[in-house]
Design a protein that fits this description.
The complex is a heterodimer.
Chain A: H1 10-16, H2 26-42, E1 46-57, E2 60-63, E3 69-70, H3 73-78, E4 82-91, H4 94-106, H5 108-139, E5 143-144, H6 160-167, E6 175-176, E7 182-183, E8 187-195, H7 216-219
Antiparallel strand pairs in A: 1-2, 1-4, 2-3, 4-8, 5-8, 6-7
Helix pairs in contact in A: 1-5, 2-5, 4-5
Chain B: H1 7-13, E1 19-20, H2 26-31, H3 43-46, H4 48-61, E2 65-67, H5 85-100, E3 105-110, H6 125-142, E4 146-152, H7 155-168, E5 173-177, H8 191-200, E6 205-209, H9 218-225, E7 232-235, H10 252-265, E8 269-270, H11 278-288, E9 304-307, E10 311-313, E11 320-324, H12 330-338, H13 341-354, E12 358-361, H14 370-384, E13 389-392, H15 396-405, E14 408-409, E15 411-416, H16 419-431, E16 435-439, E17 441-442, E18 445-446, H17 450-466, E19 474-477, H18 489-504, E20 507-511, H19 522-536, E21 540-543, H20 548-560, H21 568-582, H22 595-600, H23 604-617, H24 620-641, H25 646-669, E22 679-684, H26 692-703, E23 707-710, H27 717-727, E24 731-735, H28 742-754, E25 760-764, H29 770-775, E26 780-781, H30 785-796
Parallel strand pairs in B: 1-8, 2-3, 3-4, 4-5, 5-6, 6-7, 7-8, 11-12, 11-21, 12-13, 13-15, 15-16, 16-19, 19-20, 20-21, 22-23, 22-24, 24-25, 25-26
Antiparallel strand pairs in B: 9-10, 9-14, 17-18
The chains are: A alpha+beta, B alpha/beta.
């Protein structure tokens, strides 16, 4: 399924770059504009998602009808009360990836800004899907949790592989390396829970995260999964 | 269906019926009870009766070829099962053979490996090749009749698989890729490039599967048919899937009618992919029974080369950039010797920007492992440009390494009239489906007259044709001789170009700038000779595209020969030029002389200008010590304090880089000192392709006068050790972004320690902590680029 990219959230890009609430100078502002033009021109956002039932399986949650078990304290807490889930894979495609590699050779500052702009863009793509799913879920009188990805909290990155196998992520060009790196890099896998009761505030996954102490996003006042 | 071997000739004659493949396997297995995400290949062993019943249904529906249930049977995809590729493939072929029962051929099905290949991913070409080889050997051993490579989206992966089939078996091989409605695959592969490359590598049939329904495939199939003379395969999905249920929307009878359109265009091997079942194949049988129209790709005879993403048709002048070549370029030689690929990548990008259509790649340097360097350089260039490459070497091993690494149809530079050279190199040209440049010289030496040049060209052409290389892939270099040494040479070369073009009808190549060695005003001589040669019929000048005069001449020639419709290219070229000249260089209002401001604000032009002015008043090194370094320190302090941010730091580094460039040029002119505070090796470790962080550290260290040997991303530990030992480096910086690649960092540190070399190691990356750095044995943890500078100052004593 194809998705049209909305205007990229400049404030989010600036936060990723460590600006907080500071304004960029004229040169950086021009680079931000150029980066947005590049990302909007080259990004071909695509997503795949599917609905599954959940069933407890010992210390993990089994995604029914698949070989995927969700493991880790954080995801079990996040999906507490959920009896179904939606698995998602989303990507900006290969062209942005190529351009970031090319720009690193000729203009590292611009490359950095494009890289961060693309990170914001793929999160926005996921936000858009999340909005759609929340509406669909609400229309059935049920409630969607926020999204949770391998690597958040203590959910292992190694789950990238089964996420991608279950969704057949190759169908939108997403592959997993043996180091559990997604390519194109600007790709995301995630799971949403579907609950019968309204969902309480998103949990504090940072508390369970291995790199919470050094995380540059936290220092910049944000987080990978929009946690508190 | 008869023998596959004579398929091509029977297709051409119109005596072959349509060949029917089977339909979807995965969906039917899931209907039979398999889990989503579970590798279905295990079913060959655990549920053979289920697999066999699916195959049998297809045979009974009319499939002439059935594909084994081995789409994901690589060692990589079997890791979480208890089976080896040989076990599942052996079982799969046996099951299929039982179901086929002599009524159908059994094809070993091979799908993508599920991991992106280098340079944009981390799976190497050789690793991919080995994974395919293992499957193919198992399939051949088990008695498969042919190999069917399908659902590919990366042309490099297709090449690895095809080469493995050709080098490790005698089986016929069919290949299909999956294209998007945009007309490209996910990785950007053009149908034309796929057709040209797969045909050149010796596939027996090629085509399209999955991704789309038959109605969406028309354009892609047409483009493939026009770039191959092989039978063409179509294996579409049953229309388009419903995004929520995954169900496909096209019924079996409609499917057959839609395929009729593709068959009428020339497709001859027909089947189904996702959402199709035996009913769809039955529908095809009913529709195409007894139909024996002639059907083959209709490739016109035309000279063309390509990368995966770019097709270059040589139907006019096409410029080959000559700059990737160490001859006479000390800086290039040093970069090559150090394995500093970024320098070479800059050359690639700047030539593309200047208008080159192809790039020559020559890495011949005494003492260097030329085949390995050629493979590395060709691989890296493909990450930053889509231009097709010309692999340039006198060493056949280096030529083969370049041909193997290049994802596309390359040009081999070169052979000559010497029979020994022709016999060594032409088989490589044929094997990899390349084009070849033939030089008009032989064992007796350079041909000096036009007549002898033509005779040698004819001999090269005959030899190429004897090796199965078509005439349009033979290009002749009539050789430019230095006019100051051989006054007759230019005229003879120009005459030869004309006769090779007119009498043999071949493309012509010339390295243009040799003409003017030893003369004043070389550019004028070069430009005049280029113009004369183009007029004589030169189609592939090898030149420096950054030379404006040369590219101006090419542009004017295209205009005059009607190759530039409405003169749009010419006008745009000079509109740009006048605009560039009209912009004053200093536009910014920085107070004159304030280098600190210019650097802090990232103003490159001002930084250059002010540095030049400062050098009027004080020695170069004083400018560095009293102005540039303090300016950088100030920027670094502001970054630390959080009053200046990462993009500004990088813009400042880039402005400072311009200032240092001015200083270095002056130092070089005076033949005096160089700025060199010590050498540092930097690498992003094995498995990690996030190298922006490492690149930031690099530019900052360079600003401070350190020489950085940048080994790039996804670097094996042994490469780091080699570089450290070779250059006796005192400081190494390693970067890793992912928790999963920290292991690669630890491994690299162990390898460095095991080498016994006493270098210091600093590490950095988002997920790293000082504690972990100490735990894996690093000497320093650098949280950012500024700390990297502080560490370097400590190690090198400043």
């Amino acid at each position: 399924m194809d998705i049209t990219l909305r205007k990229i959230n400049r404030a989010e890009v600036l936060r990723y770059l460590g600006y907080g609430d500071n304004a960029p100078d004229a040169l950086v502002a021009a680079q931000l504009d150029e980066a947005e033009t590049i990302v909007r021109r080259l990004a071909k956002p695509r997503v795949l998602y599917r609905l599954f039932d959940l069933e407890p399986a010992g210390e993990t949650l089994r995604v029914r009808g698949t070989a995927l078990d969700l493991a880790g304290e954080a995801i079990l807490a996040h999906l507490a009360g959920a009896d179904q889930c939606v698995l998602l894979v989303a990507t900006l495609g290969m062209a942005v990836e190529r351009e970031i590699f090319r720009l690193q050779v000729v203009d590292l500052a611009l490359a950095t800004v494009v890289d961060v702009t693309a990170s914001a863009a793929i999160e926005q793509v996921c936000d858009q899907v999340q909005e759609e799913l929340a509406e669909m879920t609400a229309s059935k009188g049920r409630f969607l949790t926020t999204r949770f990805s391998p690597g958040y909290g203590d959910m292992p990155l190694s789950l990238q592989q089964p996420f991608c196998s279950v969704l057949d992520a190759g169908k939108i060009g997403v592959t997993v390396s043996k180091f559990y790196l997604l390519t194109p890099r600007k790709s995301v896998t995630a799971v949403f829970g579907i609950c019968r009761e309204p969902v309480s505030a998103p949990l504090k996954a940072c508390a369970l995260c291995a790199i919470a102490d050094t995380c540059s996003l936290r220092k910049a006042g944000t987080s990978c999964g929009k946690f508190d | 269906m008869g023998s596959l071997i004579d398929l091509k000739s029977r297709c051409a004659e119109g005596t072959a019926p349509y060949i029917l493949l089977d339909g979807g396997m995965g969906t039917m297995l899931q209907q039979g009870g398999l889990c989503a995400g579970e590798n279905p290949v295990a079913a060959n062993i655990t549920r053979p009766e289920l697999v066999e019943s699916i195959h049998r249904a297809y045979v009974e529906a009319g499939s002439d070829i059935i594909l084994t249930n081995t789409f994901g049977a690589s060692r990589k995809k079997l890791l979480d099962t208890d089976y080896t590729p040989a076990e599942v493939i052996g079982a799969a072929v046996r099951v299929a053979r039982r179901a086929a029962d002599d009524r159908a051929k059994v094809a070993l099905d091979i799908g993508p490996l599920g991991e992106l290949l280098s340079p944009l991913g981390t799976l190497t070409f050789d690793e991919a090749y080995d994974l395919f080889r293992e499957q193919i050997e198992a399939g051949a051993e088990a008695g498969a009749d042919l190999v069917f490579i399908e659902t590919m989206t990366d042309l490099q992966e297709v090449r690895a698989a095809l080469l493995a089939v050709k080098e490790c078996s005698d089986l016929p091989v069919f290949v299909t890729m999956s294209f998007e409605p945009s007309g490209r695959t996910f990785t950007g592969v053009l149908p034309e490039s796929f057709a040209i490359v797969a045909t050149g590598l010796g596939a027996d049939a090629i085509g399209v599967n999955c991704s789309m329904g038959p109605d969406q495939m028309v354009d892609v199939v047409d483009r493939i048919l026009r770039h191959t003379d092989l039978p063409v395969i179509v294996k579409p999905n049953a229309g388009l899937p419903d995004p929520f249920t995954g169900a496909y929307d096209m019924a079996a009878d409609v499917f057959a009618e839609s395929i009729e359109v593709l068959a009428a265009m020339g497709a001859s091997i027909l089947g189904g992919c996702c959402g199709t079942s035996p009913a769809y194949i039955e529908g095809l049988r009913a529709h195409f029974a007894n139909d024996t129209r002639p059907k083959l790709g209709k490739r016109p005879r035309q000279s063309l080369v390509c990368s995966a993403s770019k097709l270059v048709v040589i139907d006019g002048v096409r410029v080959i950039g000559e700059r990737i070549n160490p001859t006479g370029k000390p800086e290039f030689r040093r970069a090559l010797g150090e394995g500093n690929l970024d320098y070479i990548l800059e050359q690639a990008i700047s030539q593309e920007t200047a208008g080159a259509d192809l790039l020559d790649v020559n890495v011949g340097l005494p003492g260097l492992d030329e085949p390995r360097t050629m493979a590395d350089v060709v691989n890296a260039i493909q990450a930053v440009t889509g231009l097709p490459l010309q692999v340039d070497s006198s060493d056949p091993a280096a030529l083969e390494a370049g041909l193997r690494a290049f994802c596309g149809k390359a040009i081999v530079n070169s052979v000559n009239g010497d029979a020994a050279v022709l016999d060594r190199v032409l088989p490589l040209v044929k094997k990899y489906g390349a084009a070849v440049v033939g030089l008009t010289l032989d064992e007796a030496g350079l041909a000096e007259t036009a007549e002898r040049k033509l005779a040698i060209a004819r001999r090269i052409l005959d030899a190429a044709i004897a090796h199965g290389i078509p005439k349009e892939d033979v290009y002749i270099d009539c050789l430019t001789l230095t006019v100051s040494a051989q006054p007759e040479g230019a005229v003879q070369t120009l005459r030869a170009v004309r006769t090779v073009r007119e009498e043999l009808g071949l493309q012509t190549v010339l390295g243009v700038s040799n003409i003017s060695f030893g003369l004043p005003n070389r550019e004028l001589v070069n430009q005049t000779f280029l113009t004369a040669a183009l007029e004589a019929g030169l189609t592939l000048p090898i030149l420096n595209p950054n030379s404006r005069l040369m590219m101006d001449a090419v542009s004017a020639f295209r205009l005059l020969h009607g190759a530039d419709p409405d003169g749009a290219g010419f006008i745009a070229r000079f509109a740009d030029a006048s605009e560039r000249e009209a912009v004053p260089s200093a536009t910014t209002g920085t107070p004159i002389g304030d280098i600190g401001q210019a650097i802090a604000r990232g103003l490159k032009e001002d930084a250059r200008r002010i540095t030049a002015e400062l050098m009027q008043a004080m020695p170069e090194m004083a400018v560095v010590q009293e102005h540039l370094i303090p300016a950088l320190d100030s920027v670094g302090r502001q970054f630390e304090a959080g009053t200046l941010f990462l993009p500004q730091l990088l813009n400042a580094a880039s402005a400072a880089g311009e200032a240092f460039e001015v200083v270095k040029q002056r130092l070089a002119q005076n033949g005096g000192a160089t700025i060199d505070k010590g050498t540092i090796v930097l690498a992003t470790v094995r498995g990690d392709i996030h190298d922006i962080g490492k690149n930031i550290v690099k530019v900052i260290l360079e600003n401070y006068g350190y020489r950085v040997i940048d080994l790039g991303r996804d670097v094996l530990p042994k490469r780091v050790v080699e570089a450290v030992l070779k250059e006796q480096v005192k400081l190494v910086g390693l970067s890793a972004l992912m928790t999963t690649t920290l292991g690669g960092m630890a491994e690299t540190i162990r390898a460095l320690r095991a080498s016994g070399h006493a270098c210091k190691i600093m590490v950095g990356g988002a997920v790293l902590t000082a504690d972990y750095a100490a735990e894996i044995g690093a000497d320093y943890y650098a949280k950012d680029a500024n700390e990297g500078v502080a560490i370097a100052r400590e190690v090198f004593g400043e």
